[in-house]
Fold each of these.
Amino acid sequence: MPRSNDAAARMLQEFAELLAISGGDPFKVRAYEKAARMVEGYGADIAGLDEKALDAIPSVGAHLARKIAEFQRTGSVEELEDLRAQVPAGVRSLLEVPGLGPKRAHQVYEELGVTSVGELLDALHEHRLQHLDGWGARSEENLAKSVRDAHLGGDRIQLAVGLGLAEEILASLSALPGVHGADYAGSIRRMCATVGDIDLLVASEEPEPVMEAFCTAPLVARVLVRGSTKSSVLTTKGVQVDLRVVEPSAWGSAQLYFTGSKAHNIRLREIAVRMGEKLSEYGLFDVATGRLLAAATEQEVYAHLGLAWIPPTIREDTGEIEAALSGELPDLVELTDLRGDLHTHTDLTDGVATLEDMVTAAKARGYRYYAITDHAPLLYMQRMTDQKALEQRERIRRLERSAGITLLHGTELNIQPDGSLDWDADFLAGFDIVVASVHSAFRQSRDVMTARILRAVEHPCVNVIAHPTGRSLGRRAPVDADWDEIFRAAARSGTALEVNSSPDRLDLDGDLVRRARHAGVRLAISTDAHAVTHLDNMRFGVATAQRGWAGPEDIINTWPLARLRRFLAKHPPAHARAGRGSK
Ligand code: DGT
Ligand code: CA
Ligand code: CA
Ligand code: ZN
């Protein structure tokens, strides 16, 4: 995604939030939010566009075009600076509180004088919120629960944010003279859904200039520790970054050590000790003679310990050491195995790109097939109708003739609180693929939620349950459901579960992917793209599936089209049919 689009979108989003929290006109707030989404998803880099060209971006009017131009020219916007000055910093931090929202943040600020998250927690504790207009005991308790849930996430950031930051810093460090290599390690390299801090490694015989460049980089707000080979900084966004500079000859052992996980490293060190060896970030050594046995590459170190190289995404000591010892490491799914994306949107509903642009981008990625799954009528804000769906189908069929890629016309249904769905079976039968997901009523009890999802799983037209737990990292906890029961039903009925690649979802997560696979469930790794740039998120979904030890065989969108189509037809497996016939 072009950085200038990103920066302008963030500016507009902040504008919207500050307007909202200072009690601004809701229509104006929404206009800024919509423009932020459009600018973020805009296909071309907006750097250098003049006001007129900016005005031509959908949802960006003359007024906002002027603001964006001012921002591009001067790096700030005067009106935004004024707003920033008006709203106390503590009040702004209320916007970060999940489940509060700008309108209510404004309300607690105005009516209760709450000016910080701490004061909000006090107000919750003293049950002062329930007496506000439009609140009640229930909404107060819901907010308390969101706050508790989010706190579980602590100060961790999303993988994509950490990875973006890591790549930005690495790009500048690897360009320095004397640098042999530079890479990220830690939880980012293991592709954990959230990361606590960013660990970077640089191979160089001359650490000093690397440290200097690192500690004086523009995005550094504060240097926490500066040493000759090890430094830690805090970025302007409050993220900690640790850098180690190591000898190029010890690159492999350093990578191994700093990638972790800690549990994985402990197991490796135990194996070394049993062999009379010692493993550290400096290498694998013979204890008796002190001789260096391996250090240059991870492969060498693993090989000396009698292990095959273990992919970082499964280094969690959950069986990978045993598997490597016995030569039974899983064949993990790779990005290049994917033949298509099975959950995407267009501007017919809440996407920001046209059907044609999304398809062109999918084709450019080398996909063989591509599903368009816009929202269905029950998500009423999206204004989908039967007629629009049928018109889209026609448009897709026409486009397909020249597109050079197989297009699947699908839809994303809304699983209602009672498990019912949009459209009847006749209408649903007209789609090539049907995705269904929960978008509301996330707090049902475990039994109700389980029954609700089971009803969708067992529907004869539903092919994929999208973002099954509904979690939103740092904002919303996963729904409570009996996943093992859902997995058994999905395996039985030939319904796939999704690994949603969106960085704020990564849902199912690695652990649930693993449990699903053990139950015989097939998975789909999809982006849920609402913009062309979101198609790039596939790498996060693939990594998440890897963390659940999934192989290409488990993932329906690695399959050839004919096999995928048989799965989507959702006939019971042959043995099940035979079984039924003979009894
Ligand atoms: P995070 O930052 O919480 O997302 O998770 P990690 O895994 O990146 O943890 P971090 O940053 O504390 O450490 C990075 C890696 O360095 C970790 O995965 C393994 C290694 N490491 C750090 N401290 C220790 C330790 O005390 N013992 C061992 N064996 N390894 C460590
Ligand atoms: Ca880390
Ligand atoms: Ca660290
Ligand atoms: Zn979707």
Amino acid sequence: MQKPVVLITGAAGQIGSVLAEKLREKWGKEQVIASDIKYSPLAKKGPFEILDALDQNRLEEIVQKNKVTRIYHLVAILSASGEKNPVRTWDINMRSWMNILEVGRKYNLERIFFPSSIAVFGPLNEKINTPQDSVLNPTTVYGLSKVAGENWANYYAEKHGLDIRSLRYPGLISHQTPAGGGTTDYAVDIFHKAVKGEHFSCFLKKNTRLPMLYMDDALRATIELMDTPVEELTRGVAYNLGGLDFTPSEIAAAIQNILPTFSISYEPDERQAIADSWPSSIDDSMAFQDWNWKPNYDLNSMCIEMIDELKKKYFSNLSTALPKI
Ligand code: AKB
């Protein structure tokens, strides 16, 4: 098989910054072009392009120049930030995706990845083990854009024969890059506060259960999905993806097992309504059926690794700038 030439849009974000490294390990660094609207340290480790994904001409220029064959489109304004400016969120999330689909059609790209989300679900869905094929009734602009994005992906797959693959990610927890603007961000921020020895004020109620996944597992799922032969994918475009589910008080207790002096309080804000509209857990049996998807991390092993990694980040090299959260 010929190696793909990969373009990642929005590569400086929480998923892109680690996916770029994984794909560079897999395919070789020259094969993976990271891009973002702003400069990222990824530029020091391989090809990097400044790209505003709303700029169709610039996107085409990069695709042509590098003979790109695959795109991972990671540009999006997430659920909580998206509500602050709904029209702008719709514009960025949708117009950038349409640009990718058009470039896919025009240059006959071999494969495209679209990150969908549990935000496609809403209050009418079953809360526990939310099934794959539910009526989608999102309450956020971000969720609306993910439902529309999945539908457009199906349209381009059907009409133009594009091979587009997608996962409905739950909240993702990682130590490399801070999360930015989501409702599940508390589950990342909590670790930074805990490791720095600070009190954490949680913006969700203590018993709000949400589906979550450690980044390492999420990346493996993404790579496995993209590697699965197309004939084995029975679903069409978007697969439910689950792994963990926990409440703020459960993750706090798991952190306290490792850092006993850690303290938390609960001051729910407008993000509570978004969380309340989402599933508590996800039925991802189709991913298991189609490529044997299984998460490796449980709540405790994730907490151990997050705390270890953040301790290294904060304390082993004090001259390195600390990430802002
Ligand atoms: C968010 O909270 O908006 C995202 C998501 C679940 O897609 N992390």
Amino acid sequence: MKTELIFLGPPACGKGTQTAKLAKHLNLPHVDTGSLLRAEISAQTPAGQEAKTFIDKGQLVPVELVSRIIKNRLSQRDCKNGYILDGFPRSIEQAEQLELINKELNAGNEYRFLAVYFDIDEKILVERIINRRSCPQCGEIYNLLFKAPLHEGHCDKCGAKLTQRKDDTKEIAESRFETYEKETAPLVDYYKKQGVLKTINANGTIDEVWERLLKVIND
Ligand code: AMP
């Protein structure tokens, strides 16, 4: 059966690392709206130019824009058996858009839908954000606090020079947390009421959280 998994949690809760790993494990595409939007910005498309003004302030890009990008991505062939959705939906309005998209793309066929919430102590997250680095070439994510690269400043996997996301500064991170509380946190109740929510304790090492994640996915 087609498997559609979505993930909720505050910025830097570890979703990106775990969902990329899960996508490989389940052989499903990892669809990450933040990366899709950053790719539009790098390609200097009109959508990217519009998105940049919101991303630079730590705000959500408009629902029409992000829903269009998601619909295009989920319509591609590699999503026919399902997908791991990371960073979408991020508001009730986006959740409603996702339901419409699924209705259209699944054409009445049954599918498994699960929302996984990463429950974490938010006090540690700003520190995590400012220590985050990523590889612009292969997408590997590092953290100087607990997953530092072996050779300072360079990717262990492909050797490219690591970069810091422009919105991973203290100021913008704080604004991203406010946006999360206001727009995204209400989705936890929204999916709980629908009976499709699984919560995992996201405090812990990458391996500990991975074990907990596998347990709820295989339940
Ligand atoms: P992320 O890489 O998930 O931390 O996302 C980085 C930024 O991209 C966010 O702070 C938003 O500005 C934007 N973004 C990512 N996903 C969405 C979404 N589903 N809706 C609106 N904006 C988004």
